[in-house]
Structures are given as structure tokens and as C-alpha cells.
From TrEMBL:
Domain of life, per lineage: Bacteria
InterPro entries, A to Z: DUF1214 (IPR010621), DUF1214_C_sf (IPR037049), DUF1254 (IPR010679), DUF1254_sf (IPR037050)
Domain DUF1254: 59-189
Residues in coiled coil: none
Signal peptide range: none
UniProt protein name: DUF1254 domain-containing protein
Domain DUF1214 per the UniProt entry, residue ranges: 330-438
Pfam family membership, one: DUF1214
């Protein structure tokens, strides 16, 4: 039997549109990461893009030295619980060394995912990872591993993202204490490996310009229907088929070959990609439209960074909050609605009350973050965007429970330590993170309390 469709066979516009629609939805996350790689390739040096976001040439890494600032728009759903780093590697160019310094008893995790946003390396406190040097290699690398490398991780794709995360309490003392720890975080080409730990003062990074337009309120656009099918062949070469995907690749390639010979067919596919973006992808920004449904209208996922052929969840996560940790590292729980199923909006006041000893069960830490309708921080008078383990002034109720107040105006001086400011008269989302989750939160026997409207 033939491996796939004959690319010389005349096909109908309707068939080309069908394949284009499916291909656009399926490959949306991969093209998203591919275009981020193109952006990182324009970085002239290791620095901070717009003075805000870690930005580095390929096979390099930049680190923040404090919480991420609220005005970045490159990645939706950022948090202010950890100090972030970011780098994109091109493993067809070189294997890459990943440095892990000694973090002591502090929570940390390196997110390392391939072009599909699937994790292929386990590095973090929850894995008992030891300080040392680790090597990332591409799918076809056959070189020699040098002495001094602790472990090798092989990616299915040549493009990969590396994102260190190190927990930091929200205090001046913590900001100072964390600096010598994060100084040893780095990635670089294998040719530069000499067995010694390279260190940086990440507070001294230069400010760099942005290669993208970042003026909107939502996330920077990374996927464009008009160029999607021009980029897709390169993306498919980078990400070879998973088992069972061979026919999908052949079908898509045959239709793209036909469209290369027929401008009208290509125009129809681009038009269908635009429709798919609006009709299928855009609604996935809203958490209430997907995910495992839990009590009180919370939702979650169980296969983050391990999507495989779960194309729907992978694209949903990529649209709403791309670059999430694997389930052993972090459990994410999403909320767009109050207990009555009404959309959360800053015109109302809400409470979230954890019963005594019922805060999220974690080995690491937890936080409740508020995002605006675009999944970014909502400006507020006290510059507070989340509450949780990092906040040392939270006030517990007399019965041992913990009530958080989610509203646009202060609940009063006595309760302000527990206030999570909401945008006035605007929709918003609540997002609970449980880093290094314990079994009850992994198996679903613990779920968050209801969001009660006052």
C-alpha cells in the first residue's frame, strides 16, 4: 500500500480546506514554539527584552533576578512565585550543557520541553536531582559524552525550550539570599564545557529591544494563518512523526505540495486557517471551555507536558497558558466562574476559604493568582497579583481556616493582608498552582474550595 496520498492527484478545494483545518489546530503549538525560536535567534546577546523578559541567543539562557514584571506579554499566565529563566536551544547546531547549582532546601525545577511542548528531562527538587552538569542532545546526535556530565536527555525534536524556576518568598531578605543560588544557573554549547561551574550576576543584564510587536493587551501573536503553511514543512521536519502519525504527515504534505502548484488552493487553505483560528483556537483561551471538570467549576489537566497525541489538550494549554510544568512538578487548577456558574467579574466581591489544614497539599508551595481576561496581571494599587506560601503575613481565621478576599477594593485594613485585588468592572480568572503536589491533589481527592460571591 502507498505510504500516503499521491501528491500529483488533483484534489478538491473542500478536501484541502478539511486537511488545512485539522493541520492548523494540530500544529498550532509547534508553530508557536517555532516562531519563538525565530525571535530568540534575533537576540544580539544575553539580556532582558524590553528590560522585562529573559532573552538570549539560541543555545544560551537569561535569568531574571526578581519576580517577573507585570507588563510582559510574551507568555500568558506568568507567576510571581518564582524567579524565571528562559532559553531556546537548537540541538541540530550543538548539544547543550545545563548547569544545576546547589539550591539547598529551596524548591526549584527546570522545565525542559521539545517543539511539541512535551517534557523530555526531569530536573528539579521533586526528582532529587543532584547539582552538576546535564546534557541535552537532539534526536540524531551520536557524539561522545564528556567526563563530568551527570546525565544525558535526548529530545524528540531539535528545537527545545529551557525554563528554570526557583521559588522565592516575597521579602527583601529572600531577594538578597537567592542571588548567589541563581548565579550558577546557565546553559551553553557543549564545546564550552570544561567541568567548572560558570556563574553570572543576573542583575546586571542589559536591556534589549523586542523583535515582535508587543503593544496589545493580550499575548504576543506567535501563529499567523497567512504564513502558517509556509512554515509548517520546516516544523514537520524538526518534529518527526510520533508512532501512528506517519499517515497524518503524508496527508498534510501531499495537500501542501498541491497548494504549492495552485495559488487558489493555497489561498483557500490560508482562509480556512483563519477561520480555524477564530472558531476553534480562540475559544480555548477561556479555561471553562476545556479540561477535566472538578467541583465548584474548577478545571484542570492531568497530562501537561506529556500530551503525546492528545492534540486538543495540547492546543488548549498552548493557547491559554503555554509552557506548563509536568504533573509531578506542578498541578494547575483553573477557575473562570463563581460557585453559581457566573463569570468572575470585578464588579462583585468574592471569597475563597480553605478549611483548617486544607490549603493545597504540597511538598513545595502553592499560590492563587488573578489574571485579567487576557491572562495577564491586572494592575492594582498595591501591586499584588497572587497570594500563597510566599506571603508571610496572611491572617488565618480563629477556627484555623484561611479566607482570601478577591475584589476590586480593599476589604479593610485588618483584612488587607489577605486581599487579592481584582480589576474593577472587568472579567478575570483565578489560577491555583500547587508546586510539587502531594498525592491528594494529583489523584483529585483534594480540589479547591468554591469561589463564593458576597
Amino acid at each position: 500500500m502507498p505510504a500516503g496520498p499521491d501528491s500529483q492527484v488533483k484534489i478538491t478545494e473542500a478536501y484541502a480546506r478539511m486537511v488545512a483545518r485539522d493541520a492548523y489546530f494540530w500544529a498550532w503549538p509547534m508553530v508557536n514554539i517555532y516562531n519563538r525560536r525565530l525571535a530568540f535567534s534575533e537576540s544580539p546577546e544575553v539580556g532582558l527584552m524590553n528590560g522585562v523578559l529573559p532573552f538570549a541567543p539560541l543555545n544560551r539562557l537569561a535569568m531574571l533576578h526578581d519576580y517577573i514584571k507585570p507588563d510582559q506579554r510574551w507568555v500568558a499566565c506568568p507567576n510571581q512565585d518564582v524567579v524565571y529563566g528562559a532559553g531556546i536551544v537548537a540541538l541540530e547546531q550543538t548539544p547543550v550543557i545545563v548547569q544545576v547549582p546547589d539550591f539547598g532546601g529551596r524548591f526549584w525545577a527546570y522545565q525542559i520541553v521539545d517543539l511539541r511542548t512535551d517534557s523530555f528531562a526531569e530536573l528539579g527538587a521533586m526528582y532529587g536531582t543532584q547539582p552538576g552538569f546535564y546534557l541535552l542532545v537532539g534526536p540524531d546526535w551520536k557524539g561522545e559524552v564528556p567526563q563530568g556530565v551527570t546525565q544525558v536527555f535526548r529530545s524528540r525534536t531539535n528545537t527545545a525550550f529551557v525554563g528554570p524556576r526557583v521559588f522565592m518568598n516575597d521579602t527583601a531578605e529572600e531577594r538578597e539570599a537567592i542571588q548567589p543560588l541563581i548565579a550558577g544557573i546557565d546553559i551553553y554549547p557543549l564545546s564550552e564545557f570544561d567541568g567548572t561551574l560558570k556563574t553570572h550576576d543576573w542583575s546586571k543584564l542589559p536591556t534589549l529591544g523586542s523583535p515582535t510587536g508587543d503593544e496589545g493587551k493580550g499575548e504576543t501573536r506567535w501563529v499567523f494563518p497567512e504564513t502558517f503553511f509556509k512554515q509548517l514543512p520546516d516544523v514537520m521536519r524538526d518534529a518527526s512523526p510520533l508512532p501512528g502519525e506517519e499517515a497524518r504527515y503524508a496527508q498534510i504534505q501531499a495537500v501542501m505540495d498541491a497548494a504549492e502548484r495552485d495559488p487558489d488552493l493555497m489561498a483557500a487553505m490560508v482562509d480556512e486557517a483563519g477561520k480555524t483560528d477564530a472558531e476553534l483556537v480562540a475559544p480555548l483561551l477561556q479555561f471553562r471551555n476545556w479540561g477535566t471538570q472538578l467541583a465548584h467549576h474548577w478545571s484542570s489537566t492531568d497530562n501537561n507536558a506529556a500530551f503525546g497525541t492528545d492534540y486538543f489538550t495540547r492546543t488548549a494549554v498552548a493557547k491559554s497558558n503555554i509552557l506548563v510544568n509536568a504533573p509531578k512538578e506542578t498541578k494547575y487548577l483553573y477557575q473562570d466562574l463563581d460557585v453559581n456558574g457566573e463569570r468572575l467579574n470585578g464588579s462583585n466581591n468574592y471569597t475563597v476559604t480553605f478549611a483548617k489544614d486544607e490549603t493545597p497539599p504540597v511538598e513545595g508551595f502553592w499560590s492563587l493568582t488573578l489574571y485579567d481576561e487576557h491572562h495577564f496581571f491586572a494592575p492594582n494599587p498595591i501591586d499584588r497579583y497572587s497570594l500563597g506560601t510566599k506571603n508571610k503575613t496572611l491572617k488565618f481565621n480563629e477556627d484555623g481556616s484561611l479566607t482570601l478576599y478577591v475584589q476590586a477594593t480593599s476589604p479593610g485594613a485588618d483584612l488587607e493582608a489577605n486581599w487579592l485585588p481584582a480589576p474593577a468592572n472587568a472579567d478575570f480568572t483565578l489560577y491555583l498552582r500547587a508546586y510539587w503536589p502531594k498525592t491528594p491533589i494529583i489523584d483529585g481527592s483534594w480540589t479547591p474550595p468554591a469561589v463564593e460571591r458576597l
